[in-house]
From TrEMBL:
Belongs to the D-alanine--D-alanine ligase family. Its main location: cytoplasm. Residues 104-303 form the ATP-grasp domain. The active site is at 18, 146, 281. Pathway: Cell wall biogenesis; peptidoglycan biosynthesis. It catalyses: 2 D-alanine + ATP = D-alanyl-D-alanine + ADP + phosphate + H(+). This is D-alanine--D-alanine ligase. Keywords: ATP-binding, Cell shape, Cell wall biogenesis/degradation, Cytoplasm, Ligase, Magnesium, Manganese, Metal-binding, Nucleotide-binding, Peptidoglycan synthesis. It is found in: Cytoplasm. PROSITE patterns: ATP_GRASP, DALA_DALA_LIGASE_1, DALA_DALA_LIGASE_2. Its EC number is 6.3.2.4. Cell wall formation. GO terms for biological process: cell wall organization; peptidoglycan biosynthetic process; regulation of cell shape.
Length: 316
């Protein structure tokens, strides 16, 4: 029963570079929850602070924030301290997944396929990265999402400018080997051994440019869900998605992004722990392919809300 959720806060907006997307996600989630009889209330974390959140009387919250201060573990830590159950991953998993460099180190250590990369702290390191990774390559700020600050470098003489663009959004830059092929994404829901992958989505953007505009506003991008892949390859990619999800300690829901190269080898790019929930978003699309409506998906995610840190009884 949705009444059992009590008073629900939909946390959205925030202060990150993805605020605009979060406002759309939160509005959609709020409308959906209300349509299902949930006592849901919008709460803009960009306009209100933690004191007001603590005083709002929420029994649980749906995190519809993207990027820093909402998806990176900072808010999750505050919610743990206040004892307010929340959707999505906990403090550690959120922090790890938000840091694309640490994510890739962990996946690489566990033998999960991810493109070659380098961490760049200074422009003087750019030439060596280009020499090692080759071109094309991708420059991106490792703590942003929604392709914010992401630049493709096709020629070596473009690398410094790309580095400076990415550095505008972060204190370090992730230089990543470019994988030519198909762009895929796989939502994952659940926890631990119960985590499962939803249908694979094949994304076909104009000129292969799946940027901010083509993600959230353009109708030119094509989506194929389920993706046209062999059953064996589909199962392999879904298995990699769940393994990548669990490797980071994620729970509740998330979305793994891949490139599928010209030899049909999948390469993990990143894990999103608070994916978009806009009209163009991919988790609702995959859920719909399984017969789950947007509104029911929101309720299902809300039902998983919990505090991850358990109190330990201490004897004197």
């Amino acid at each position: 029963m949705t009444a059992d959720f009590g008073r629900v806060g939909v946390l959205y907006g925030g202060k990150s570079a993805e605020r605009e997307v979060s406002l759309m996600s939160g509005a959609g989630v709020h409308e959906a929850l209300c349509s299902m009889g949930v006592d849901a209330h919008l709460f803009d974390m960009g306009e209100k602070g933690l004191t007001e959140l603590a005083q709002a009387g929420f029994d649980r919250v749906f995190i519809a924030l993207h990027g820093r201060y909402g998806e990176d573990g900072t808010l999750q830590g505050a919610l743990e301290w206040m004892g307010i159950p929340y959707t999505g991953s906990g403090v550690m998993a959120s922090g790890l997944a938000m840091d694309k460099i640490m994510t890739k180190h962990l996946w690489q250590h566990l033998g999960l396929p991810t493109p070659g990369f380098a961490q760049l702290d200074h422009v003087s390191q750019v030439a060596a990265a280009v020499e090692r990774l080759g071109v094309p390559l991708i420059m991106k700020p490792p703590h942003e999402g929604s392709t914010v600050g992401v630049v493709r470098v096709d020629h070596a003489d473009q690398a410094v400018a790309a580095f400076e663009t990415a550095m505008h959004y972060d204190t370090v830059v992730l230089a990543e080997q470019f994988i030519r092929g198909r762009e895929l994404t796989v939502p994952v829901v659940g926890v631990g051994a119960q985590a499962r992958a939803l249908p694979v989505i094949d994304i076909v953007a104009p000129q292969g440019n799946y940027d901010f505009e083509h993600k959230y506003y353009s109708n030119e991008t094509q989506y194929f869900c389920p993706a046209e892949l062999s059953p064996e390859l589909t199962a392999h990619i879904q298995d990699l998605s769940v393994r990548a999800f669990n490797a980071l300690g994620c729970e509740g829901w998330g979305r793994a992004d891949f490139m599928l190269d010209e030899q049909n080898r999948p390469w993990l790019l990143e894990m999103n722990t608070s994916p978009g929930m806009t009209s163009h978003s991919l988790v609702p699309m995959a859920a719909k392919a399984e017969g789950t409506s947007y509104a029911q998906l929101c309720v299902n995610i809300l039902a998983t809300a919990r505090c991850k840190v358990q109190a330990i009884a201490r004897s004197l």
